[in-house]
Amino acid sequence: MSVLFDQLLQLQQKQQLLLKQFAFLKSENRQLTKRLAKKDAQLINAEEKLKDLQQKLDVLKISKGAFSDEEKKDLERRIDAYVKEIDRCLALLNT
């Protein structure tokens, strides 16, 4: 009976250890999830800032008139994309 009791005690200790590890990993997972969400928000902010700076650079280039042919084509593509986005927004507003 003593052997069975010892085995049961060991099993209980292992269970407690697993529960502690589970709690630790759950806590760590929450922390990592929060860090990931924070990094995602930082990335979105950085992308928005980059987009804003790119638009400002385009305005400066337009005001100077210093464009290569490739830059002109790229600017035309972006202007077309902006126009399509505006058209899409207008269509959504009209529905």
Q: How does this structure look, described?
A:
The chain has 2 domains: 2-64; 68-95. It has 2 helices and no strands. It has helices at 2-64, 69-94. The longest helix has 63 residues, at 2-64.
Proportion of residues in helical segments: over 70%
The rough form would be described as: rod-shaped
**Proportion of residues in extended strands:** under 5%
Number of H/I helices: 2
Write down the secondary-structure element order.
HH
Q: What class do helices, strands and sheet pairing give?
A: mainly alpha
Please, what is the average pLDDT? 90
Q: Provide the domain count.
A: 2
Count of DSSP E strands?
0
Question: Ranges with pLDDT <50 over ≥5 residues?
Answer: none
Radius of gyration: 30 Å
Compute the separation of the termini in Å: 78 Å
What's the story with the biggest beta sheet?
none
Question: Secondary structure elements and their pairing?
Answer:
Blueprint: H1 2-64, H2 69-94
Question: Which features does this protein show?
Answer:
mainly alpha; 94% helix; 95 residues; rod-shaped; 0% strand; 2 helices
